[in-house]
Structure formats: C-alpha cells, structure tokens
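Before going further, learn to read the protein records used in this course. The integers have meaning only within a learned vocabulary of local backbone shapes. To see the layout at work, look at the sequence and tokens printed below.
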Amino acid sequence: MDNEASWRDRRREASAAQGEALQRRKAAETAQARELLAGFIAKMEALGIEPRPLRAPVVGSGASYRTGITGWYLRRNESLAVDADGNFYILGTQSSLRSRLAGVHVLPSDPPLIVGLGARDGESLPLKQLLELRLGEIEG
C-alpha cells in the first residue's frame, strides 16, 4: 500500500513540475512575442502611421462590427490586430444583431510566437515573419 501511495505522490509531483515548466515556457514565449509587437508599434509610429479604429470581421461574411479598439491590423483579412499599448487581439466574431447595433467587445489575448499554430497547412506563420510582411506591405 505504501509503494502505491508513494508512486502516486511521485507522479503528482512530476505532473506538477511539468505543468510549472510549461507555464514558464509559455510566459517566456509571450514576453518574446510582446517585444516583437512593441518593435512593430515603434516602426509604425516612426513611419507616421497612426492607429485607426478596428473592426471585427464576421466569420463567413463580408460584414464587420465596431470594437472600440484603435490599433493596426496584422493580417490582410483583418482577423488579427495590435493596439497602441501592445495588446494582441483575435478579431473574428460570429454574426449577432446585438453586436451589429452595439459593436463587439473583444478581449486581448496573449500573443503567440507562431500565429495560426494548429491551423491548416500554410496558415501558420512565425509572428516575426508576419510583422515583417505587414511592414513590407506598408513600406513597399
């Protein structure tokens, strides 16, 4: 009985240690992504490109709703954005009469180092490369 209890205790400790390591790695990746976004914002400001009101595109439709956020879109389809404070937003939303009238409330997300990870082939992209492509479109 003691061997079984000690085995469970060791497994629980190992699981907790794994969870803590995962949280540390996620925090480090988020910090690195935030630095990339801060550099993007600085470049946009240096180019004199002011943040503008952002709209959330309705998934599967050509419509979009007001968000109350000002910033810059990171993708041409306007599904990702960053505000002037460096907050990262996933803007896609569902159709709703209430949102159509009042706008949609979008919460910031932790920025990923790989945008679209787990999406279909060709849809994931390192954040650094996405930001470089966006700046290239603007400067080009």
Remarks:
- The two ends are 70 Å apart (CA to CA).
- The mean pLDDT is 89.
